[in-house]
From TrEMBL:
It comes from Gemmata obscuriglobus. Its main location: membrane. CDD domains: FtsY (cd17874). This is Signal recognition particle receptor FtsY. One of its GO terms (biological process) is SRP-dependent cotranslational protein targeting to membrane. It catalyses: GTP + H2O = GDP + phosphate + H(+).
Length: 304
């Protein structure tokens, strides 16, 4: 019923589940709430990297749910429902435009898995029948354009590029013109893998955003930030700073299969209000899936 994502996420959450084991052991078979239990639940959610805001919210809901007699069976069932609710987004998936190209800007620091995530996203969109164009606007990092070009070749995907240190906004301009003229469904705009502390590069990101908006009405329709799941709570700092420069609409969470810090998904959604749109679950080009909150929570709680 939960399909392909569930199978992938179940395998990819092995390390995260080991950390969440303390939460599950506490909840299973438990039908009564007292302050000692709530303190222990709070401690174990912290240890699972769920984050302060989400942890306090869950604990408060359990406390209130017991008082209001909303919890009529095992507490585990109630907590699972709260976790699902924390992750659910009213508009899942990409915000496709009815006509003209849908523009997706991709941001993120070097090492986050940004280039690979772009390739995985392009592959998935092409599999869904979309005509995809890539814009290689990460012109400041050595070999970045070459890496994206290699991926484009493997995917049979068109790419707009210039040489290293070219003006990124000029590349974005040309890509928008080509996307409109050639009838592309989706334009994916790569941006420089910058640190959120590099002011001049953040300004360049803002400039690309302005150029894209000028060329295509309503664009960018999505601004997705690639966050490395292995960094856990540290990813929040990056996300907050990027959101100050451009309005992010969602997260691509990479390397989820390689971390015990998958609980950060809850912190990201609760603190930033940004949905996780896609997750990377492995090394292969096919190892990216749209995020499914129900499958994620089910996989976390499933007994081995």
């Amino acid at each position: 019923m939960l399909g392909r994502f569930f199978k992938g996420i179940k395998a990819g959450l092995t390390k995260t589940k080991s950390v969440f084991g303390g939460v599950f052991d506490l909840l299973r078979g438990k039908g009564r709430v007292d302050e000692a239990f709530l303190e222990e639940l709070e401690k174990r959610l912290y240890l699972a990297d769920v984050g302060t805001q989400a942890t306090l919210l869950i604990v408060d809901r359990v406390r209130q749910g017991f008082r209001d007699k909303e919890i009529t069976g095992e507490i585990e069932t109630f907590v699972k429902a709260q976790l699902r609710e924390l992750l659910t987004d009213p508009s899942p998936g990409l915000n496709y435009q009815a006509s003209g190209p849908t523009v997706v800007m991709i941001a993120g620091v070097n090492g986050s898995g940004k280039t690979t995530s772009i390739a995985k996203l392009a592959n998935r969109l092409q599999a869904d029948g979309k005509k995809v164009l890539l814009a290689a606007c990460d012109t400041f990092r050595a070999a970045a354009v070459e890496q994206l070009t290699v991926w484009a070749g493997r995917l049979g995907c068109d790419i707009v590029k210039q040489g290293q240190n070219a003006d990124p906004s000029a590349v974005a301009h040309d890509a928008c013109e080509k996307a409109k003229a050639r009838g592309f469904d989706v334009l994916i705009v790569d941006t420089a893998g910058r640190l959120h502390t590099q002011t001049h590069l953040m300004k360049e990101l803002e400039k690309i955003h302005r150029i894209v908006t000028r060329q295509i009405p309503g664009a960018p329709h999505e601004v997705l930030m690639v966050l490395d799941a292995t960094t856990g709570q540290n990813a929040l700092v990056q996300a907050e700073q990027f959101s100050k420069s451009v309005k992010c609409t969602g997260i691509i969470l990479s390397k989820l299969d390689g971390t015990a810090k998958g609980g950060a998904v809850f912190a990201i959604k609760q603190k930033l209000g940004l949905p996780v749109k896609f997750v990377g679950l492995g090394e292969k080009i096919e190892d990216m899936e749209p995020f499914d909150p129900d499958a994620f929570v089910t996989a976390l709680f499933e007994k081995e």
